[in-house]
Amino acid sequence: MTSLLDLVQSLESGLVDTKTASQKDTLRTLVNGLQAIPIDDVQDKEVQCLVEFLVSRLALADPDIICTILDGFLWLARAVRADSTRLLCPAQATHICHDGLFGQLIIQSLTKAPRLRVFRLLQLLLHGPHLSGLKMMGRSFLVAYVQAVDGEKDPECLTIIFDMHLVVIAQFELDEMQEDFFETMAAYFPINFTPPTGEGAPNISRASLSEGLHRCLFASRTFSAPYLLPLLCEKADSDWPQAQLDSLSLLTDCLHGRLGSTDMLGELRGPSIALHHLTSYLILIAHVLEKMANKSISHKLDKLTRSCLTGLVHAYSSQTRDIHLLKNFVAMLLKTFGIVLDEAETNAPVGSILSPPKLPTDQLQNYLLEAVCYSQPDHLLCGLLMDHLLRFICSPLIHWSSTGTDKLESIVTILGPWQPFFALACRLLDACADSAQTSGQLSMVGRQIYEGTLHLLTTFHAALIADASESELLESKLPYELVITIFGLSTRLSRYDSARDITTAAELNQMIELFGLVVRRLGHKYLRVVPASNLDTMREELEAIVSHLYRSASPPTLELLNSILFGRIEATFNQPSPGSCLALSLLQRAALTNPLVMARLFQFLLDETTSTGKDHRNLIFSSLISVLHFFAQTAAKSPVESCSPTMLRHLCDLLLGRLDVICQLMKEQPAPSQCMVENLGTTFRIITGLSEDSQQIKLFKFFNTQSQSVLAHEPLICVLFCSVIIALRGSVIETLGPSDIMLKLFQLATHTTPPAQLENSVFEYITTAVAQAYASVLNKCTEPLDSDINSHVVTTFDRLWNDSPSLNGLERFACHWLVVCLQSLLAHPGPSRRVVFDKLSSVLLRFPEKVLPKMNFSLLETRICELLEVLPTICSLGPPGSATSEVCHWEGTGLFVQKTFYLVTLPLAEQINALPDALGISSSTEQQHSVKRLRDAYLTAFLRLCLPLPTDLLELHLKELTHYVLLAITSSRSLHTQTAGLRLFCSIVDCVKNDSKQLTSRFSAGDMDDVFACLPRLLESAAGRTSDKMESGYCAVDGQSSRMATLTRLSIAHCLYSLVSLPAEVVGRHRDTHVLPVLVQLLDDPVRVVRTEASKANNAWLAHI
Questions:
Q1: CA dihedral 586, 589, 591, 592 (to 10 degrees)
Q2: Where does it live in the cell (predicted)?
């Protein structure tokens, strides 16, 4: 057909035939024919005639005819000409709705097929340019629309309706229709829907329906608050967890005025619920919060309750400055959490102190902190909250300065029970710190409390000064926790301008002297009088106090504080048997935010190290390293909140200024401990990584100018040099010349000779650091790799693995070098790395064909086993500050795990399959034993590499992995291999245990029988094995063997816990013979974690059968 007119003429009289069947067929032909007509050829008059005709035909009651006509309307609504104009104009859309859909049909009486078409047509009209026509219908459209959607139950239709609701709410004036329209949504809240199963079921979930309804009700908040708030409070008060979650989630978003206040993502922004509605229903909302706050709830509910609380704060702070409204809100909100200033306390005589009320639970305290923290931008509301809270939790201190006693015993008796309340006050003041610093003024109550703390601190100071002999009697009477809490409260209140106005210089000096007295007594002699459980809390509070003092105190006060704290450090170092130093830990915390403190502490420790005698020099040097390590670790974990990059650059400048002294001190450490070496390496990696390019270059050049003999024979300097290289940015490496750095590192590896007294583990750490530095340079080279870099890597590989089977002590370095280079090449997304990777990885894939003919097979077998022991570390990316972390600018890819699996792990499986064939061509019994040991080493490495696989990759290769797991557990005699098999077996079972069919298809009954039978033998081996070196090729020492045996027993316990999910007919026959006897032994294991896992497995088995 070339035109609509031709199509109609071809149908002749069928369109008006009195026979329904004939008319039905003709209408279907017409609507189907519309699809073939070029839209640009359809005339406006033809469209008008077609609309008039289809509307008139809707009077026919036949459902098939109705569906056909609606299909015609849908075609008209979707049709767009080449010039982007629509076939259907707004007036015609109005005619379809008013005279057709709403005039001829009772929509809710239709079957699903026509109803679905009606809603799709309305959705098109509401979202297109036809909306203007529908809006002209006004109230008549809204009345008919509400009737059309009211009572709908089909989820597919509801999905469309919820989408239309958003347009209706945004585009129409609902006026007197508000309540009726709201009821069309409220009837479904909360969604209670379970998706049907079957091939023909629509892909609609409860979550999608719930989100659609959530958006609709959220959009209605501007007019539906009188109906919505009672509904949400009612559902949140129910016992149905899903109703609680949905209600609190919607209430939170409505209060915050935006979608996405919690988990749901969204971009809509708008006003909160109107304040006059909110005040009317505040009691109901408070009741919901009270219920949630006073019972144990899930993490999701807890998060939503917090968000609802902050939403209330936002709603009030953003809509009113009326102090009476805000006071009523604060009183109601805090009453919800049990904080009430009743008449008995308000009217109590001045100076009388009642017993403390019930302390809010930890959960309630967290809610209070959340509310105070969120109110910070609104100084008025934040001030009212804090004023109300301080009146409640610090009431004994309000009049203490004028009526309190100076007798120590009475103070402890009266205020001791209030100490937890004062500690809560400190946390609340920390939560509103920003607001306090901005406003700068204390309320009258705050001033009174501050004066009370000053009075108490004066009393404490006098008591400690009078006790010149530092008698233990005073220590037993004076609870340090109360003294420190009062001090912390006073320090926090002192940041207000109005508090400084009432503090004299003498009082400040007394406070600092008191602080020094407390630190001295706590830090050394009287730790035994402090409960161990309180010591950490007290130390944290002291750190907060000293950090605040260094931020806000005047220069004379700081000088006094410095003399006290640095004097305590010096006194500690001068003791015959110095221990830990509390003053040092306090100063290092303060130094994180104060560059002057950092510089003075660094200089002080360095001067103490160089000036003290040799007896204490090592101790002070260790303290210096510990402080630097603390700075670096804190910066790596939270560089913005705890230690800014600026502070780390300042620290780098300090180091650059005294590197020569530090290196000289390191030369005096011929046999450093492994802890010292590791801390130094981590510290210099982080500091270098967070430094500027110019600082990185200076650090590198300093160590690069050291002679080769110094770097080769001084272990600590070698570690620092490698750590600096590891953390260099790629741009810095390109500036310095990557090939030159790599050449120097290899020369360093070949010439490094450990001092005789250096531990083997420390020397291995050093050689590993050299290998990591080499790999780090390779990782950061620009793409594509330069030919010189390629050449150097291949030459180094040939020297380490091809040219000579004996490396005169470089064997272990060769293993680490190869693994970290493979890791470097895999991590970088550049394609040019693949050629070098294939060359290096060939050493893992050439056995046994190329090795068996060689004369020194035993030596090479040992080396390949050592390599396979190290190989699984390729997947270990390490903590912040490690060589592969972002701090060290490691170039990585999100596909690293997948690339490792396909390019390293699966090729190992091919070698495992090939090695049994080598047994037939090996010429001696010794070589046959070597091949067996080699197979176990390959199998162990393969299994350990599979452990970190993500679930999707694990499921994809379950069949292959299951084969090797059973091979390791049932066929190997190596403890390492069997344990690795057990650990992966547990991961596989945990992955498929919810699918019984998949579980039984992967593991046959015979396989399971073999696994159960192996467990007692494996437990016996783990209990009696001390070394597995000769059997597996691993270089194990007693400590490593002990850890391996513990890991084996733990794996057996975990395996038994996983096996309980097998079918009853399988597990039933092994319960008494192989399971319970093993668990009896594991329940008495000397290692607690093994006993815990065994107890978990034992309970599962007893409950299962």
A1: 180
A2: Cytoplasm, Cytoskeleton, Spindle; Nucleus
Question: Of 1074, 1085, 1018, nearest to 1048 (Cα)?
Answer: 1018
C-alpha 1093/C-alpha 513 separation (Å) is 52
- 10 Å CB burial of residue 601 (0-12, 13-18, 19+) is buried
Say which residue the tokens 């509910």 belong to: 301
Which has the minimum average pLDDT: 24-33, 415-424, 977-986? 24-33
Structure tokens at 1075: 């399971």
Query: What is the reported pTM?
Result: 0.75
**DSSP labels for 101-154?**
IHHH--GGGS-HHHHHHHHHHHHHHHHSTTHHHHHHHTHHHHHHHHHHHTT---
Which DSSP string corresponds to 911-964?
HHHHHHHHHHH--SHHHHHHHHHHHHHHHHHHHHHHTT--HHHHHHTHHHHHHH
Report the distance separating Cα 929 and Cα 935, nearest Å.
Answer: 10
C-alpha distances in angstroms, 712 versus 513, 709, 742? 50, 5, 15
Residues 6+ apart with CB under 8 A from 463: 408, 474, 478
- For the four alpha carbons of 361, 364, 369 and 372, in that order, the dihedral sign comes to negative
> What 8-state DSSP symbol labels residue 19?
S
CA nearest to 522, candidates 554, 481, 574: 481
Among candidate residues 122, 192, 102, the one with its CA nearest the CA of residue 155: 192
801: nearest Cα among 733, 860, 717, 886: 860
Any idea which of 26-30, 483-487, 644-648, 995-999 has the lowest mean pLDDT? 995-999
The owner of tokens 């009030």 is: 316
Contact (Cβ atoms closer than 8 angstroms) between residue 1015 and residue 1078: yes
How many whole angstroms separate alpha carbon 169 and alpha carbon 33? 37
Q: Is there a contact between 239 and 292 (Cβ–Cβ < 8 Å)?
A: no
What phi and psi, each to the nearest 5 degrees, are found at residue 683?
A: -60, -50
Are 413 and 356 a contacting pair, CB within 8 Å? no
pLDDT in the model for residue 314: 92
- Between CA 330 and CA 347 the distance in angstroms is 20
> How many beta carbons lie within 10 A of that of residue 808, not counting itself?
7
The amino acid at residue 489 is: L
Q: What is residue 529's DSSP assignment?
A: G
Distance CA 57, CA 594 (A): 83
254 CB-near residues (< 8 Å, 6+ apart): 218, 221, 228, 232, 272, 273, 311
Work out the pLDDT band at 846, boundaries 50, 70, 90.
Answer: low
Distance CA 169, CA 165 (A): 6
**CB distance 883 to 776 below 8 Å:** yes
